[in-house]
Amino acid sequence: MLNIVKTTIVIATTSLIFAGNAQADVNEALQNICTIVKADDKTELRKKMKMVETDFSLKIKDYYAGVSCGGNSLIRTAMLSNAVETGTLIVKKMPKSDLSTPEQDGKTVSDWAIENGLADSALAAVLKARI
Questions:
Q1: pTM above 0.85, yes or no
Q2: Three-class secondary structure assignment of the chain
């Protein structure tokens, strides 16, 4: 009985250690994603998304909410930077339901765009067509 308890504790501890390392690696892999979006480098963004999907089995919907670029989401950052190519890629890769879900500040991307005078931008048009 005591061996079972010891084994369980060892397995649980090992799992937590590896889970912590995996999280740190994902954060490291996504470190420059904001810069890529701001630069409107669609090719580099595609590579980054593919690498994260291959290495960590995560799609953009899995990490989108956890990425903040100066307090803004990736789509908001693309709108502010007029990064139509990268913004369009993100919009197309995200599930439609997630695009109309309120973000951390309680506003949807569309509502935020209207409030910030970006409702007439090319990326806002892509977003509206997708929703």
A1: no
A2: CHHHHHHHHHHHHHHHHHHHHHHHHHHHHCCCHHHHHHCCCHHHHHHHHHHHHHHHCCCHHHHHHHCCECCECHHHHHHHCCCHHHHHHHHHHCCHHHHCCCCCCCCCHHHHHHHCCCCCCHHHHHHHHHC
**What is d(CA 66, CA 58) in angstroms, rounded to the nearest whole number?**
12
Q: Exposure pattern of 63-81 as b/e (b: 16+ CB <10 Å)? A: bbeebebeebbbbbbbbbb
Residues 59 and 122: their CA atoms lie apart, in Å, by 24
pLDDT of residue 100: 87
Degrees to nearest 5, angle at CA 102 with 101 and 104? 130
Q: What pLDDT, on a 0 to 100 scale, did the predictor assign at position 104?
A: 85
- Burial status of residue 7 (CB atoms within 10 A of its CB: 0-12, 13-18, 19 or more): exposed
* Average pLDDT score over residue span 74-79: 92
pLDDT at 78 over 90: yes
